[in-house]
Amino acid sequence: MEQVGEVEQALTTLMDLCGDDPAREGLQETPYRFVKAFLEYTQGYREDPKHHLDKVFDVPHQELVLVKDIEFYSMCEHHFAPFFGVAQVGYIPNEKVTGLSKIARMVEGYARRFQVQERLTTQIAEALESELAPLGTMVVIEAKHLCMCSRGVKKASTKTVTSSVHGVFAKEASSRAEFLTLIKD
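Given the sequence above, the corresponding structure tokens read:
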């Protein structure tokens, strides 16, 4: 693929610009490894993550379903620096439930794209809404952004928390409080 060769050449130029010798032993295969890694980091573009939720079951359950601490890794679209953390994903079914692992796969699919945390949070909630039509959906993501921790303001212990709240979670404080209580460690 011609694009791979172009990217590898650009990375060789970048290594030289940074002050290292792209021909030295440790760096000779780095451009290829970099391209391979980025294709893995962005594998979410090669799927529609909400389709993981297609498998549903008719289960008479109208109480909270919460999948906690779903680890994810993503790439900041502004700096191509990693950000990573956990997603807390909950919904109150309305006739349909999905497999618990499907929720984690869906999170992974959206995370494996160039992202901002705010969009990632919204995409997860909107996928649940569109595929399951639940009574309510709530997503909370907590993440560390290397673009903020290791460069720029260099605040290494900083975490960012985002949420997306729909349906009964938006209307009923008690439902929202139950979710928030359950996600606390």
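The helical segments are 2-18, 30-41, 100-111, 117-132, 146-149, 168-171, 173-183. Try to locate this feature in the token string yourself.
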